[in-house]
Amino acid sequence: MAAAEIADRYERYIDACNAREFDRLGMFVADDVIASETATGLDAYVRGLEDVVAGFPDYHWNIEQLVVEDGYIAARLTGTGTHRGEFRQVAATQRTVEVQELAVYRTDAGKIAQCWGDLGAVLRDELLSA
């Protein structure tokens, strides 16, 4: 798959995440995806995203920079949200946070097959820094 097509699919993946259309992620993420923070598989991958939006109901991912090469994606993202629910054993603080996230993905057949990133830890560290 061409780099431009992979980039377009990734942008649509982020749009689906921002719209909370997690039931559509199978279009963009492989059933046997390997994620750095969660158990293997699409269901576990989706649960990780659902955990983020449970703690930060208004969480929004914004792509700042995107590089696609040889089936790999490097994405620099800004995430913003208000901590209104428990997240990683931290009770709601009502704080609005903005965090920088760097995620690297390996794609296969146009879908995310592996992900390296640590958004959960970044968010938790931000909450505990206050």
From TrEMBL:
One of its GO terms (biological process) is polyketide metabolic process. It holds the Pfam family SnoaL. It comes from the Bacteria. Gene3D superfamilies: 3.10.450.50. This is Ester cyclase. It comes from Gordonia soli NBRC 108243.
